[in-house]
Design brief:
Blueprint: H1 12-28, H2 31-45, H3 50-59, E1 66-76, E2 82-92, E3 95-104, H4 110-132, H5 140-167, H6 217-233, H7 238-246, E4 259-267, E5 278-285, H8 291-309, E6 315-318, E7 324-326, H9 333-344, E8 353-358, E9 365-366, E10 371-375, E11 378-380, H10 382-395, E12 399-403, H11 411-421, E13 426-429, H12 436-442, E14 452-456, H13 463-475, E15 479-483, H14 493-501, E16 505-509, H15 514-533, H16 544-547
Parallel strand pairs: 4-7, 4-16, 8-12, 12-13, 13-14, 14-15, 15-16
Antiparallel strand pairs: 1-2, 2-3, 4-5, 5-8, 6-7, 9-10, 10-11
Length: 559
């Protein structure tokens, strides 16, 4: 039966009942009252666009948008490998529309990336999409809890499979076997290992590696996409939304833009020279300097280094980290090159900028010899590594941070290094630290020899995981560094996360790759927004230890 009030076939009784039903329906929604208020407000304000004013006024009474669909697709990261992008669709004012999308990569071998992304797409399509359908993207904690509960049996299943493979009676390499390196073509001084000295303790065996769960990146990607969608629907930048989540909706009065740790050189295992030690030589601009000035300074330094190396065989390609690959043969050679470039530019190490070294020591251990291969053919024990770092920092006091200077298993040497350096240099754990999920399971950091932790939003890490871990780190008095993945995807969400979470530093890599400069550009935009709003804070109190470091010209050992 038609309910069209203009239909001539409807008898008066039906028409009366329909009018009564409509009146009751609108009264239950208080629609006449709200329309009257909106019309009176429009009359008083006399806007130029009356209908637009009424639409905006009544839109505030609309139902909260809810998720109606989640879609995933295979994209490429900055190195051309498979990565995952997730889009969130919401029902907004009775219309289904795509709100936002976010991408994420995962630290798995290249030959496993495709399988992991395909598995993630299946999870999203058949399980995760229906699981969170009908929930508001504002309910980040609830959605992340559902994602974590969904992922738990997946992780247990993967762990069971791994244990089964380890128990299988198959011929597998010994744990003490040297790991094959992509740099096996480097010349070695000797193929024989040094004999262990009398009384010398054997190195601890490597801990079992934390295996990434195939498809796990679906969890982190969906969580980030939901956060972005909530920010879009609130018409708020993502960093403000994340800050509100962290502070339980109490917005901070000031924000700080994390100090960038900018990669300039790479002299690690994949570089053409003999030096293995320095996977990244990182420049840290002086705290308090505007970001655009810092980036201009580092660009000038990058160009000067390239100019010094032009016509030599030392310079290589640009690494996936966005910096110049350099072939060096001596431990302090990269630092000497940067010092020379600074002198040409009248920049003072220890005043205008500082240095950090990503040592990636876990990549240097030769388990057949029980030593770190710092330079091809030159091996050092954990104790000798501590002495090497102390000598290096005595010669270059502007080095204010060491990332992963040792394997995480060499706990006594971590402690010795940290105690000896004290406030002169921060010892940070990147790969040497545990995955985010392990920190949260323990409920405390349990890393007494580390001054800070480098975190990455990758794999199954949710936004709630990051919020909880940042609170844990801050409560423990440590520094938090938010970093890109080594093979990073295009997108700028990480910059917003770093500002919203209150990270001390941000590691985005170098300035020579587009997927990384995109994030620097977002940081520039955020800093400008905060400055215009009068809410830009400073780092002076938090990072006073940098300003107390001696300048290079104050170092007596400088030769």
């Amino acid at each position: 039966m038609s309910f069209d009030s203009a239909s001539p076939s409807r008898d008066p009784r039906q028409h009366y009942e329909l009018r009564q039903e409509a009146a009751e329906f609108y009264r239950s929604l208080r629609l006449p009252e709200r329309l009257e208020l909106a019309l009176n407000s429009a009359l008083r304000r006399a806007p130029g666009d009356v209908y637009g004013y009424l639409a905006e006024d009544l839109a505030r009474l609309a139902k909260t948008p809810t998720i109606c669909a989640i879609d995933g697709r295979n994209v490429l990261d900055g190195s051309g490998n498979p990565a995952l992008e997730v889009g969130v669709c919401c029902t907004v004012k009775n219309v289904d529309k795509k709100i936002s999308a976010a991408g994420i990569s995962e630290a798995v071998p290249e030959n496993e990336k495709r399988k992991s992304v395909d598995t993630a797409l299946e999870w999203i399509k058949h399980d995760i999409g229906p699981l969170i359908k009908g929930i508001s993207p504002d309910e980040q904690s609830k959605i992340d809890h559902l994602l974590r509960e969904y992922f738990k049996p997946k992780r247990k299943e993967a762990e069971s499979e791994m244990q089964g493979k380890e128990a299988a009676p198959l011929e597998t390499p010994s744990p003490s076997s040297p790991r094959v390196s992509p740099k096996s073509s480097k010349k070695r001084a000797s193929s024989k290992g040094r004999k262990m000295a009398a009384g010398e303790m054997p190195i601890p065996p490597p801990d079992p590696p934390e295996q990434a769960v195939c498809g796990g990146l679906a969890i982190g990607a969906v969580s980030l996409a939901v956060a972005r969608s909530s920010a879009v629907l609130r018409e708020s930048p993502l960093y403000l939304h994340v800050a509100a989540l962290k502070n339980e909706q109490l917005m901070p009065t000031t924000f700080t833009v994390p100090i960038p740790m900018i990669s300039v050189l790479s002299c690690g295992k994949s570089s053409p020279g003999k030096l293995n030690l320095m996977k990244e030589v990182i420049v840290i601009p002086k705290p308090g300097r505007p970001l655009h000035e810092s980036l201009d300074m580092v660009l000038s330094l990058q160009h000067q280094v390239a100019k010094q190396l032009s016509g030599t065989s030392k310079a290589g390609n640009v690494s996936s980290l966005g910096c110049l690959v350099l072939g060096c043969d001596l431990v302090d050679q990269p630092l000497a090159i940067i010092r020379e470039a600074c002198e040409h530019l009248a920049l003072e190490l220890g005043t205008d900028l500082y240095l950090a070294l990503n040592c990636a020591a876990h990549e240097l251990m030769d388990y057949s010899k029980g030593r770190y291969e710092v330079v091809s053919g030159t091996f050092k024990t954990p104790d000798e590594m501590v002495a090497l770092y102390l000598d290096l920092i005595n010669k270059y006091p502007s080095v204010c941070a060491l990332l992963d200077p040792l394997r995480k298993e060499d706990a006594p040497q971590w402690q010795k290094l940290s105690d000896t350096l004290a406030s002169r240099c921060h010892v940070l754990a990147d790969v040497g630290s545990k995955p985010v999920s392990k920190f949260l399971e323990d409920g405390n950091l349990k890393i007494p020899a580390v001054g800070g932790v480098v975190l990455k939003h990758a794999g199954e890490t949710t936004i709630t995981d990051l919020l909880d871990l940042f609170r844990l780190i801050e409560g423990d008095g440590r520094m938090a560094v938010l970093a890109c993945a080594e093979q990073e995807i295009v997108g700028d969400s990480l910059s917003d996360l770093a500002v919203g979470l209150g990270a001390s530093f941000i590691m985005l890599g170098g300035l020579l790759r587009g997927e990384r400069t995109m994030k620097y550009n977002r940081l520039l935009a955020i800093e400008d927004e905060l400055r215009r709003a009068g809410t830009l804070g400073t780092h002076s109190a938090m990072l006073s230890s940098l300003s107390s470091a001696p300048r290079e010209d104050e170092c007596p050992s400088r030769g």
